[in-house]
Write a structure and sequence with these properties.
homodimer, 434 Repressor (Amino-terminal Domain)
């Protein structure tokens, strides 16, 4: 199993998961809407990917949520 | 010259540069504080790097500014 990148990444992924489920997306449907692979979305949600800015923005658009709000969740957990 | 990744990346980099200059950092001193290479910081500021979450958080800490605020700048420019 890949390692989690950091607590901040885990918190970011958890925020993605919560919002995805609120909207009734599966990992597959979020991935399809965002133009990503479903395995990649799963890894993001587990904090196992050091997601880059382009994909942060893609996911936030599909989730109809500011990327800044997702990042704020990550920051709460970062040293 | 490398291409800019997107308008959002350019806006993110511009926000980094503004804040860096406010604090009196050079690209070199920001890079040193953040544990990054100065060329990488220059490329970030020009929007030529698709910066990942770990480095977004590193830079924001050195700049004493929430990463969410830097991302908000990027989002203003993203479609």
């Amino acid at each position: 199993m890949p390692a989690q990148v950091s607590r901040a990444h885990v918190a970011f992924g958890a925020a993605v998961r919560v919002r995805r489920q609120e909207l009734g997306f599966t990992q597959e449907s979020l991935a399809a809407e965002a133009g990503l692979h479903r395995n990649y979305v799963g890894a993001i949600e587990r904090g196992e990917q050091n997601i880059a800015l382009n994909n942060i923005l893609r996911i936030s658009r599909v989730l109809q949520m500011p990327a800044a709000a997702l990042i704020a969740e990550a920051e709460r957990e970062s040293g």
